[in-house]
Amino acid sequence: MPRVVIFDETGDPDVLHIVEEPIADPGAGEVRIRIEAFGVNRLDQMARAGASPRPIRLPHARLGIEGTGVIDAVGPDVEGIEVGDAVMIAALPDADVRGAYADYTVVPVTAVVPRPPGASAIDAAALWVSYSTAYGALVEKAGMRPGDHVLITAASSSVGLAAIQIANQIGAVPIAVTSHSAKKDALLAARAATVIATDEENVAEAARRHTGGVGVDIILDSVMGPGLAELATAAKFGGTLITAGWLDPRPASFPVGALTIYRYMSFEHTLDPVVVRRIAAFLSAGLRFGALKPTIDKVFAFEDVVEAHRHLEKGQQIGKIVVTV
Ligand SMILES: NC(=O)c1ccc[n+]([C@@H]2O[C@H](COP(=O)([O-])OP(=O)(O)OC[C@H]3O[C@@H](n4cnc5c(N)ncnc54)[C@H](OP(=O)(O)O)[C@@H]3O)[C@@H](O)[C@H]2O)c1
Q1: Nearest CA to ligand 1 atom 44
Q2: Is 295 in the pocket of ligand 1 (CB under 6 A)?
Q3: What is the pLDDT of residue 316?
Q4: Does residue 245 have its Cβ closer than 6 Å to ligand 1?
Q5: Could you tell me the CA-to-CA distances from 166 to 36, 67, 113, 139, 160 in Å, in that order?
Q6: At a CB cut-off of 8 Å and minimum separation 6, what does 274 contact?
Q7: Where would a tag sit more exposed on the chain, N or C end, judged by fewer CB atoms within 10 A?
Q8: Does a cis peptide bond (omega within 30 degrees of 0) precede residue 251?
Q9: Mean pLDDT of successive 10-residue segments in the chain (325 residues)?
Q10: pLDDT at position 257, please?
Q11: Is 322's C-beta closer than 6 angstroms to any atom of ligand 1?
């Protein structure tokens, strides 16, 4: 019988358990995916812990906004996709019902994109959410250009590492900010132009030093919290601050002054088929030329999904945590 990870109440990783259930048939406009691997995302952890920005339908909630696999069945009125096609899930706002932590899931055909040729299931499971978020925030929203200096916080997160690669792909200058100085070498190896560790230096001062006193063009921040206003002083006059996450759950101190500020949610782009096509083409090009390559921190087996969440919560990872099915 096919397996699904569910939770009946929110809480610690132990609330997750595996049940066996019959698989649903796809309805009109839907496809069924046999999942091969899924990425473990911070949004999954927030949903499980009771901190989701969207309401979660309990009990028997599913989990998982990201996954990859093979089309296993196609519903009526579906064109352009066939049984056997390898795909990635592009957007799953109702992951509590259709979540990818399972052997199978049924999703609207509009919620899938082709898996890039040559990408393994593990790489593909680590690709879409982090790269579409970094691309959407930096390119579509902030208008990143070649030569821009871009300050990227939580640099060893999967979004942070994707942002470093995308900045390099475009010809911008990625300045990585990490909370752990021990990760500096790994971030330089990941092709950050330079690394600022918040446990040993002041970010804004260091950023100004690295930009000849001018400040950076764009800040991509996934931490927020009370340090946000101070972080924003790393930007040049008229620069852009784009927030994409709130890893620090304390209230954020939004800056005032001559900055353009965006609060970014990737669903703004991943639910828009025109932008999804653009993202998919950009990612395929980057993979083809070797500019983009997902960083995998650790791969867990399906039975060890609770351990995968415990690992995420330690915050020691560099890159994506993936579970194979
Ligand atoms: N806006 C969107 O649509 C969207 C989509 C996807 C993800 N996100 C957000 O992007 C952020 C990164 O997500 P992810 O899944 O790539 O990351 P993740 O793997 O959960 O990131 C963990 C890393 O974040 C850094 N970090 C800094 N402050 C932290 C704190 N207070 N607690 C824990 N970690 C902290 C650490 O890296 P360092 O040691 O390098 O500091 C840590 O290794 C999250 O905030 C997530 O919610 C947003």
Answers
A1: 245
A2: no
A3: 86
A4: yes
A5: 26, 21, 20, 9, 10
A6: none
A7: N
A8: no
A9: 97 98 96 98 96 93 98 96 97 95 97 94 97 98 98 97 98 97 96 97 96 97 96 96 95 89 95 95 95 96 98 92 98
A10: 80
A11: no
pTM for the structure as a whole: 0.96
Q: Per the structure block, which two tokens stand in for 79?
A: 């064109």
**DSSP secondary structure of 103-152:** SEEEEEGGGEEEPPTT--HHHHHTTHHHHHHHHIIIIIIT---TT-EEEE
Backbone angles phi, psi at 188, to 5 degrees: -65, -40
Q: How far is the CA of 246 from the centre of ligand 1 (A)?
A: 8
* Dist. CA 229–CA 255, nearest whole Å: 4
- pLDDT value for 53: 86
Please give the distance, rounded to the nearest whole angstrom, from the Cα atom of residue 221 to the centre of ligand 1: 9
Q: Measured from the CB, is residue 130 less than 6 Å from ligand 1?
A: yes
Pocket mutation for ligand 1, best pick of 157, 220, 275 (most atoms within 8 Å of C-beta): 157
Handedness of CA 164, 144, 123, 1 (dihedral sign): positive
Burial 3-20 (b: 16+ CB within 10 A, else e): bbbbbeebeebebbeeee
Find, among 35, 14, 16, the residue nearest to 98 by Cα. Answer: 35
State if residue 43 touches ligand 1 by the CB under 6 angstroms criterion: yes
d(CA 175, CA 318): 16
The answer to whether 232 touches 260, Cβ cutoff 8 Å, is no
Closest approach atom of ligand 1 to CA 157? 21
Query: Is the Cβ–Cβ distance between 117 and 106 less than 8 Å?
Result: no
End-to-end CA distance of the chain: 14
247 CB within 6 A, ligand 1: yes
Q: Residue 102 has what DSSP assignment?
A: B
Residue 140 beta carbon below 6 angstroms from any ligand 1 atom = no
H runs (alpha helix) in the chain: 42-49, 95-98, 121-125, 128-135, 158-170, 184-189, 203-210, 228-232, 267-270, 273-289, 305-314
The pair of structure tokens assigned to 172 is: 């911008």
